[in-house]
Amino acid sequence: MDTRLDYVWLDGYQPTTNIRTKAQIVPSEDFSADVEDVPVWGFDGSSTQQAEGHDSDCVLQPVRIYDHPLHDHAHIVLCEVMHEDGTPHPSNTRALLPDDADEFWFGFEQEYVLMTTDDRPIGFPKGGFPEPQGPYYCAVGAHNIAGRDVVEDHWRVCREAGLGVTGINAEVMLGQWEYQCFGKGPKRACDDLVVSRFLMSLIAERSDMVFNLDPHPIQGDWNGSGMHTNFSFDHLRDVGGRAYIEALCGGFGRFHDDHLAVYGAGNERRLTGAHETASIDRFSYGASDRGASIRIPIHTRSNGWKGYLEDRRPAADGDPYLITARIIETVRAVHEEALQASG
Ligand code: ADP
Ligand code: MN
Ligand code: MN
Ligand code: MN
């Protein structure tokens, strides 16, 4: 019996990359399922905005392997895109992540909208709108829910693949949903998120649905889609403290523009100050404040100001490698001063 390998990578489109995949079989006798033993492969970079036509070969370097939940004797192989000489391609944002940051844990809240192939949210009547927002968030019942079968199938296959997808909920707009994806270490967390997005695209395809990550797909009084990024690190989990956390958050404010630059394209259409967002123009933080840029969750306060923080600014279409790299960089830039401020 041969083994099927589905290679997955991010292309070179700007400002938002797309997931690409192609599959091949390898003989099972000599396949160990260790990522080191997965054959390096390649693709035509001139078709993915990663190369010019006259010199178009890009290298797919396998970096993590998962059980494939949709096929027997099969794996998903997440890859970094490399030049022929082994250096990372400019589109390879995973290569920017530090190797010494596994004390950082991340929990992404991936919001999205399931749409028809003509870009109408599932559950919206043709050419019109459903009842106003209010009843849809965490709803039950066919009047207020659309797309649940796809959502449940996706969660099941993510768990079968071993991804850290820990929960789901219906969101504020009809046809809008969220899942939470958690991982220890930025590479693990981000790799799982990319593969979870890949699997959702495949599952939705089967029902002729589109996995839409636009930060604000429907104009008017309808919520946009974000990707709140919850993060923690040793000192925040083990020591924390109110003064430390407030000084850390204050320090984040100095880098507001650097964060927004990598928090997803079109985010200005979402971060309006309405619909549970903070305005893009102003950085803020606050305890339990869903109108703040960074929220200090109630769980962190009630745990003696120890735990995690929620950055509410990233958009649904954000690149998790860029987002987590930026958070790590800012924490490392302001940690010392926050320690001093907390005495
Ligand atoms: P809410 O909708 O109230 O903002 P969710 O329950 O949807 O909250 O998401 C909370 C997220 O926080 C989850 O992804 C969870 O994995 C993550 N999380 C919890 N504890 C930590 C931690 N110590 N470090 C990083 N992320 C965490
Ligand atoms: Mn949530
Ligand atoms: Mn949400
Ligand atoms: Mn949240």
Secondary structure topology:
Layout: E1 3-10, E2 19-26, E3 41-44, E4 57-67, E5 74-82, E6 105-116, H1 148-160, E7 165-170, E8 176-184, H2 186-206, E9 209-212, E10 227-232, H3 234-238, H4 242-254, H5 256-260, E11 285-287, E12 294-296, H6 298-302, E13 309-311, H7 320-341
Helix pairs in contact: 1-2, 2-7, 4-7
The protein binds adenosine-5'-diphosphate and manganese (II) ion (3 copies).
The site of adenosine-5'-diphosphate has 15 residues, from strand 6, strand 8 and strand 10.
Structure summary:
By secondary structure, the chain is an alpha+beta fold. It is 24% helix and 25% strand.
Structure commentary:
The chain is α+β, with helices and mostly antiparallel strands and 343 residues long. Helices cover 24% and strands 25% of the residues. The radius of gyration is 21 Å and the shape is globular. Adenosine-5'-diphosphate (ADP) binds at residues 105-107, 109, 166, 180, 182, 228, 230-232, 237, 307-308, 310.
Provide the descriptors you would attach to this structure in a database record.
343 residues, Ubiquitin-like (UB roll), Creatine Kinase, Chain A, domain 2, 8-stranded mixed sheet, 5-stranded mixed sheet, 13 strands, 25% strand, binds adenosine-5'-diphosphate, binds manganese (II) ion
* Distinct small-molecule ligands in the complex: adenosine-5'-diphosphate, manganese (II) ion
What is the CATH architecture term of the largest domain?
2-Layer Sandwich
Order of helices and strands: EEEEEEHEEHEEHHHEEHEH
Oligomer: single chain
CATH topology (fold) name of the largest domain: Creatine Kinase, Chain A, domain 2
Count of discrete structural domains: 2
Beta-strand percentage? Answer: 25-35%
Number of strands: 13
- The amount of helix comes to 10-25%
Q: Could you give the distance between the termini?
A: 63 Å
